[in-house]
């Protein structure tokens, strides 16, 4: 690991790469990094202090407890509110988007969409969870930011990233000039550059889908699963199946080792399950920047029109050739 370069230093060094290099996006990214460290501290002690319990339960000292997802949401909101660079926050935890109307935020130009704790159902069993964020620049030029500033396509993202709270904690982000990964060195309390210029292998040998829902999948998805399972020496099939139930963990593995993660539409979730604005778009931006591909089976994720902040989408994301193959099989089968 290159412990010489911390996230803070790297962001400042790369500031001139940003589309509008005034330091605001740098500060926003730095604030997200600080909140991630606070959330990481709480994720690590979850077994000790019952943070996985329901909101309203009490801890060992008899104090009121918050669920960790509520806590994580509060920490990111606090960081974004006090940083002064963000005018609107969209969060998985809040039904409506939140205007930040403090004195220091009155000229803020950025909109942040965030899933503060993705894969939360894994928190009790020590499987990795994550935070996903997506950053847009507001389009309106005067007054309060408006809904059209929020409902921008994924192609308009200026930055996106995720934090994975796993065997080690990593922050991975892109500003549209490649992808870089930073590992938290707890001895110095800093994210340090450990994975510079990440590239996803064009082919992989792992597919990742909740196959328990096989009966609810379209014939095209079923056919792709069969393709993954058939023996073929040339393409190193059958592929292995890995599915943690934490999108961040499953996509992080694909980014490092190659592979495909699929959450398709099902007969029980006809629009898909995952959220376009703060799950699919940011992960698509990162994976594309690393050389991979992300689609909803038919269309590039980042080109989907956004009508609603909590809109759902199907997603197929990962190694370029695997996603292309899946798209081909699905479009031939589900015509
Ligand atoms: P979770 O509901 O635990 O937050 O974002 C939703 C998500 O997890 C993803 O992280 C994960 O990939 C998916 O849902 C798991 O859904 P299934 O249990 O339906 O497979």
The amount of helix comes to 25-40%
Number of strands: 15
The fraction of residues assigned to DSSP E strands is 15-25%
Q: Please state the CA-atom Rg, rounded to the nearest Å.
A: 20 Å
Ligands = 2,6-di-O-phosphono-beta-D-fructofuranose
Helix count, per DSSP? 9
Structural class: alpha+beta
**Series of H and E elements:** HHHHEEEEHEEEEEHEHEEHEEEH
Chain-wise SSE layout:
Blueprint: H1 7-13, H2 24-44, H3 46-49, H4 68-83, E1 86-91, E2 98-99, E3 110-118, E4 129-137, H5 147-150, E5 159-165, E6 169-174, E7 179-185, E8 190-195, E9 206-208, H6 219-229, E10 240-241, H7 247-257, E11 260-263, E12 274-275, H8 276-289, E13 293-295, E14 312-313, E15 315-318, H9 320-333
Parallel strand pairs: 1-3, 9-10, 9-11
Antiparallel strand pairs: 1-2, 3-4, 4-5, 5-6, 6-7, 7-8, 11-15, 12-14, 13-15
The chain binds 2,6-di-O-phosphono-beta-D-fructofuranose (FDP).
